[in-house]
């Protein structure tokens, strides 16, 4: 189609800019929308929506969104400041896996708050993700070095769920003990015990929680065990020599997981050195604020032989087409989309942004800096212990790192309250014990304040704070050059810029990913999350200190219920996949509460997200696939057949609406009615809510439960692969089965789905601000514009690439699928070739080969203006011309700019150029690129080689020396 001259089509009196936030969030202005509608043959947006969205699900004109009217940016900042001031920050010494930390300002401003880092998508297109992949490789290396295990993943969701992932890994990896029993030390974190109990029960794993003494009694082994989980240090603060426990477990054929504190491992003997198979934990205290519970990057490291079973993502090193080292996601990347119900994990969103912050914290401080921080923390804890002992208090554990368990018979409650009045939060363990945890921010003045609570008047410094040899670390770590090169702020600042310059994020161009909704993350929405009153709250702080946050949670919850048409919502799930699991567990618990234990079948359309099937498997359900009709909708005849034969076993059907094929299916209410008539529940995946808000409510047109992706529809940024928030919303009958309190030990209550009650609470102000800024009219306008933009792109490209599926009136929803399969048959040019060539045009590719292999799924979102939409259309049309050149024989596909894309500056400036096309055709295929050009840092990456030759850590020092010597020669 090319860049079109439309000066004669745009009214001269364009609407002037206003301070209405919706006009800044929504890209196409009124005149642009009028042009786009005219191109589609419509005179109004209402007419387009009437044709696109089935009337059976539409809200009536009198049944719009009952939400507060939109407010200005300054009003929202003032409102959030008022909420923040209702939170009361204290010196946090509760511990239990959450610690205050100091985020270096250079990292906070230039990474955590930088759109170059937080607006990037998951690095599935590695050539344009080299910066964040390199940072994630550093995260993996830090974890590997500190745990003493050779392979680590690129982050998980939180420590408690990471332990459950380790339990599942131990079960599938154990070839000796095939029992369904795992033994967990009672000194594990209470939130971990809660989550493991609930998740394990869903998949038939028996959990034995017990004290793990040095010599494990024979009685514990009766019945077998595929694995053991221990905590280092324990929840009580105890540091034990776990080598005997590990050896005993291995003698019995059990695998061993150690949940470890990452900072403590700079001083403590790492799990890999005493034989642990798996280490998990949280990287939160590496510069990531507590955020009232999250987001925080969890980690998992494994011994050799288990690396191909790792859940989530693993960054590996391969080479590009020029033989240069290049980073990519390896092995299990999106494995749930391939293996579906056979997947071993449903994790899709991880915590990449927070993992990168933790990695850069390690780079900034280096090994000696980390050791100094840990030593100081330990010395302060030892000083506090000595001071309390001098006053006659009993410190229970002789060996500890940062946390003390103090015995105060009958006085614990009073002392905890007195400490709170003095401005310090400590942990109430029981009536006779309290816990006190030191961290990076603890000072001697903190200890003096605390000692006044215990009526002690002096600090007593211990003569010796050395840890016993059996538990002390005596090996070096993080010897790689990267951890020694960036001590000054200027060096660190330039390193962060160097990394981000390699990547393509929303601050450079649109990211037209179907099903992932990469839209504007407004700066005003992001600003408050760094405020101390939001960032420095402990998730287990007393409720009286968090009234502002809880008001924000209540308001956001009520708004989301209004938008979806459901009665109750839990914000606890910290990823969309976890929201899916929480919703399915609620359905399962509901059926069981009615004595309907036979309902274990989950029906899932063939086109569904792969996480749907993986989540169903992890909920203990059997997956049955429902076929797709020729028009891309659910095959109703196949559904009827399955309900007729298996109706008594059906627990639920999982639908995505609009469908994953990008259309509004007209029969969705009929599908819901059919499943309800069979006694099942209807789960509507909320991944595509960007096409529904203000137009339809899944809780009203047949859904019983839905999860939402706040990191898609509600403007929380993807962060290069996380954080995410996946709230689960339900109708009233499922409300009792929503995720419970993670600190509850009552096995009769619903278990938690994440370690903190409100999950990744630290980023909830973003979604709250978005909804408050847009208001009901702005939200509906955004939805309508998203549908308009998708149809504009589809219509503009239809003569060049067939649109695979359309819905009512030949229209699509908020995304469309471009079908390249026939072109591939005719020319050999693949969808991947087009994806890589788009990099040369300055674009991230649309979703590649999902949900249909050999296609591209495009979602432009409402945030992209007409000029950017046309720039993308121009690129796709130009690429179609290059495909035509292959078909015409101008060049073979192997010699074409498509197969050789992307092209680097180094390649284009080399002395020799032997390709059939010119350098200019490679780098500047359209004129607009002369003004601004993104240069990919590497050429196309060899994925197969990266999987066969797995390298997943930073280069060793000797490699660096060898490279330097070669350069000198």
UniProtKB/TrEMBL annotation:
Gene3D superfamilies: Aspartate Aminotransferase, domain 1 (3.90.1150.10), Type I PLP-dependent aspartate aminotransferase-like (Major domain) (3.40.640.10)
Molecular function via GO: glycine binding; glycine dehydrogenase (decarboxylating) activity; pyridoxal phosphate binding
UniProt keyword Oxidoreductase present: yes
Residue numbers spanned by region Disordered: 1-25
InterPro entries hit by this protein: GcvP, GDC-P_C, GDC-P_N, GDC_P, PyrdxlP-dep_Trfase, PyrdxlP-dep_Trfase_major, PyrdxlP-dep_Trfase_small
Example of a GO biological process term: glycine decarboxylation via glycine cleavage system
UniProt entry tagged with the keyword RNA-binding: no
Highest taxon of source: Bacteria
Entry keyword set: Oxidoreductase, Pyridoxal phosphate
Residues in Glycine dehydrogenase C-terminal domain copies: 782-903
SUPFAM superfamilies per the UniProt record, alphabetical: PLP-dependent transferases
CC terms in the record's Gene Ontology section: cytosol; glycine cleavage complex
Cofactors (names): pyridoxal 5'-phosphate
Catalytic activity: N(6)-[(R)-lipoyl]-L-lysyl-[glycine-cleavage complex H protein] + glycine + H(+) = N(6)-[(R)-S(8)-aminomethyldihydrolipoyl]-L-lysyl-[glycine-cleavage complex H protein] + CO2
Cross-referenced Pfam families: GcvP2_C (PF21478), GDC-P (PF02347)
EC number: 1.4.4.2
Assembly notes: The glycine cleavage system is composed of four proteins: P, T, L and H.
UniProt xrefs under HAMAP family: GcvP
Membership in a protein family: Belongs to the GcvP family.
Name under which the protein is recorded: Glycine dehydrogenase (decarboxylating)
């Amino acid at each position: 189609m090319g860049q079109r001259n439309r000066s004669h089509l745009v009214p001269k009196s364009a609407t002037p800019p206003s301070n209405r936030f919706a006009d800044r969030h929504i890209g196409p202005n009124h005149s642009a929308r009028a042009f786009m509608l005219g191109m589609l043959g419509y005179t109004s947006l209402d007419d387009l929506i009437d044709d696109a969205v089935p009337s059976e699900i539409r809200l009536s004109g009198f049944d719009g969104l009952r939400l507060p009217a939109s407010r200005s940016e300054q009003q929202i900042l003032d409102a959030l400041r008022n909420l923040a001031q209702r939170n009361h920050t204290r010196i946090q010494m509760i511990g239990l896996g959450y610690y205050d930390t100091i985020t270096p300002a250079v990292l906070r401003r230039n990474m955590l708050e930088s759109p170059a880092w937080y607006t990037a998508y998951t690095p599935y297109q590695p050539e344009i993700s080299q910066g964040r992949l390199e940072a994630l490789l550093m995260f993996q290396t830090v974890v590997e070095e500190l745990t003493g295990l050779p392979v680590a993943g690129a982050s998980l969701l939180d420590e408690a769920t990471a332990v459950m992932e380790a339990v599942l890994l131990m079960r599938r990896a154990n070839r000796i003990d095939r029992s369904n029993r795992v033994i967990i030390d009672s000194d594990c974190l209470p939130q971990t015990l809660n989550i493991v109990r609930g998740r394990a029960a869903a998949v038939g794993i028996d959990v034995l929680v017990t004290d793990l003494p040095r010599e494990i009694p024979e009685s514990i082994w009766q019945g077998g065990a595929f694995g053991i989980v221990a905590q280092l240090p324990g929840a009580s603060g105890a540091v034990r020599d776990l080598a005997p426990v590990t050896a005993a477990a291995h003698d019995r054929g059990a695998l061993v997981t150690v949940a470890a504190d990452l900072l403590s491992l700079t001083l403590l003997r790492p799990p890999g050195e005493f034989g642990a198979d798996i280490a998990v934990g949280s990287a939160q205290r590496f510069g990531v604020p507590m955020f009232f519970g999250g987001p925080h990057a969890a980690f998992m490291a494994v011994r050799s032989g288990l690396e191909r079973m790792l859940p989530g993502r693993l960054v590996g090193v391969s080479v590009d087409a020029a033989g240069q080292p290049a980073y990519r996601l390896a092995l299990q990347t999106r494995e749930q989309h391939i293996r579906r119900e056979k997947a071993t994990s449903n994790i899709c969103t991880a915590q990449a942004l927070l993992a990168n912050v933790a990695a850069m914290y390690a780079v900034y401080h280096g090994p000696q800096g980390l050791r100094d921080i840990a030593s100081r923390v330990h010395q302060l804890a030892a000083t506090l212990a000595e001071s309390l002992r001098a006053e006659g208090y009993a410190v229970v554990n002789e060996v500890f790192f940062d946390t003390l368990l103090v015995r105060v018979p009958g006085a614990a409650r009073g002392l905890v309250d007195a400490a709170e009045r003095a401005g310090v939060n400590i942990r109430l363990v029981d009536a006779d014990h309290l816990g006190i945890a030191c961290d990076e921010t603890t000072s001697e003045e903190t200890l003096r304040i605390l000692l006044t609570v215990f009526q002690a008047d002096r600090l007593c410094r211990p003569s010796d704070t050395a840890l016993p040899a059996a538990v002390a670390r005596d090996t070096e770590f993080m010897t790689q050059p990267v951890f020694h090169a960036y001590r000054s702020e200027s060096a660190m600042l330039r390193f962060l810029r160097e990394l981000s310059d390699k990547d393509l994020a929303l601050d450079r161009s649109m990211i037209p990913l179907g099903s992932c909704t990469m839209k504007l993350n407004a700066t005003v929405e992001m600003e408050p999350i760094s405020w101390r009153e939001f960032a420095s709250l402990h998730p287990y702080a007393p409720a009286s200190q968090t009234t502002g946050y809880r008001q924000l949670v209540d308001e956001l919850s009520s708004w989301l219920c209004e938008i979806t048409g459901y009665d109750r919502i839990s914000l606890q799930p910290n990823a969309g996949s976890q929201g899916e699991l929480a919703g399915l567990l609620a359905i399962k618990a509901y059926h069981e509460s009615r004595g309907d234990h036979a309902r274990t079948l989950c029906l899932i359309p063939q086109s569904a997200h792969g996480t749907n099937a993986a989540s169903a498997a992890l909920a203990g359900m059997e997956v049955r696939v429902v076929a797709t009709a020729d028009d891309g909708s659910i095959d109703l005849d196949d559904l009827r057949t399955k309900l007729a034969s298996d109706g008594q076993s059906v627990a639920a059907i999982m639908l995505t609406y609009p469908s994953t094929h990008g259309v509004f299916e007209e029969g969705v209410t009929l599908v819901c009615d059919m499943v309800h008539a069979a006694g099942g529940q209807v789960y509507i995946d909320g991944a595509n809510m960007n096409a529904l808000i203000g137009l339809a409510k899944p809780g009203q047109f047949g859904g019983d439960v839905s999860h939402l992706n706040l990191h898609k529809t509600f403007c929380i940024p993807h962060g290069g692969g996380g954080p995410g928030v996946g709230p689960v919303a339900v109708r009233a009958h499922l409300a009792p089965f929503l995720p419970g309190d993670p600190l509850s030990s009552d096995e009769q209550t619903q278990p938690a789905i994440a370690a903190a009650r409100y999950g990744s609470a630290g980023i909830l102000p973003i979604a709250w601000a978005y909804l408050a800024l847009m208001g009901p009219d702005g939200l509906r306008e955004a939805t309508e514009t998203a549908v308009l933009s998708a149809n504009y792109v589809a219509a503009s490209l239809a003569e060049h690439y067939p649109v695979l599926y359309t819905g009512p009136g030949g229209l699509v929803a908020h995304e469309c699928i471009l079908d390249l399969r026939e072109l591939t048959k005719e020319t050999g040019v693949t969808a991947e070739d087009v994806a890589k060539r788009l990099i040369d045009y300055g674009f991230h590719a649309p979703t590649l080969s999902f949900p249909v292999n050999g296609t591209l799924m495009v979602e432009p979102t409402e945030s992209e203006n007409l000029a950017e939409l046309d720039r993308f259309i121009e690129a796709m049309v130009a690429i179609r011309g290059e495909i035509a050149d292959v078909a015409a024989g101008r060049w073979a596909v192997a010699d074409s700019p498509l197969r050789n894309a992307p092209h680097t500056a180094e390649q284009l400036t080399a002395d020799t150029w032997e390709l059939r096309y010119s350098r200019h055709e490679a780098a500047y295929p359209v004129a607009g690129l002369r003004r601004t050009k993104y240069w990919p840092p590497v050429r196309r990456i060899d994925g197969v080689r990266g999987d066969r030759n797995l390298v997943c850590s930073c280069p060793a020092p000797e490699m660096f020396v060898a490279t330097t010597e070669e350069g000198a020669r």
